[in-house]
Amino acid sequence: MSGVWSGLGCSWRRNASVLVWTPVLLIGPVVDLHGSVGSVLFQVALIVVIAVSAITVGLTGGPPWRSVVTPVAFSTLVAATFVGATHTSALWLPTWVLLANALPAALHGRWLVVAVPATTAASAWAAWAVSPHQGSRVYTEAFVVVLAGLASSAFVALLDTIEELRRTRQELARVAVVEERERFSRDLHDLLGHTLSVMVVKAQAVRRLVRQDPDAAVGHAVDIEQIGRRALTDVRQAVDAMRAPNLDEELDGARRALDAAGIATTIDLSGAEPAGRAGELLAWVVREGATNVLRHSGASTCRIELADRDGRIALTIADDGLGVPTTSSVRLGGLEGLRDRLAAAGGELAVDGRGEGFRLVATVPEGVT
Prior knowledge:
- With 369 residues, this protein is an alpha+beta fold.
- The chain contains 12 helices and 5 strands.
- The chain has helices at residues 2-14, 16-25, 27-31, 37-60, 69-85, 94-106, 110-130, 135-212, 214-240, 247-260, 276-297, 335-344, and strands at 264-271, 301-309, 312-319, 348-352, 358-365.
- A 5-stranded mixed beta sheet has the order 1-2-3-5-4.
- A hairpin with a 2-residue loop joins strand 2 and strand 3.
- It is rod-shaped, with a radius of gyration of 38 Å.
- The model is unreliable at 1-7 and 326-332 (pLDDT under 50).
């Protein structure tokens, strides 16, 4: 029921011209009541039918054009208007203007294009029947009816366009919220996934070394504390606006984390010096790539290399581990999220785990903004 009332609310605002002009345009027929009691009763009934039909069309007509009431009411209005024309009285001619006003409430598209001139021609015939020797009345009636039909159609089309724009704006806002949630989820995963992985690795190192090398265990414990504090800071910054990672910091953090996990890491930065947006994107790649090496690879060595390839910066992360990760990373914030992030900036992400080890290659344009 709420949907029905909502539809009625939209319809009466859209078809306000029909509702506003219905009592005004029926003043003439009311004034023209004459004849026997039976004739007057018939005229009153006809006026009531026209009024009810027009109001019904005004309340129910319009998009989404699914109401079965509207065509029935409109057909009744057309029939009653033609019957009114048989009175051959000039005071009944305004009913044609009312019919022209109601056209865009009941019809749309090619039907409306045909209905406006058809109604104009019928009103001209009714005017001619009233005054066959007064051409000016015929022309005046036709002009008023076509003007009413066109003006009402233009007004309704404007309202429909405004409503469509409003719905489009709402949909764009909804999509923007969804995309922002996905971005935040992806960024939060990329931000904390690496940090938590490093903390787990260092905690494992503390457990191994606590009896054999207490000093080394204390060093790893201090690192865990520092990483945890930094993670808290990152989360606070992420709530306000995601902190853009720094490539140098991420490379240093990746090297330290991989070394702590017993993975010998080599970093070669001789091929390129990315900055700005390119550096930020590649920092995300380093974070996700190093996290995957820690979690899934079982590798003993890892190589991270930057190279300049014809105006594009390529970052390669390769290890000698198990190859394809056993845990799927096809989720928000994983490799697919990373691929989407790079694609949005004109970059690409390629992975290869068919041979020994796993190889990740990310490329971005040098001047990406």
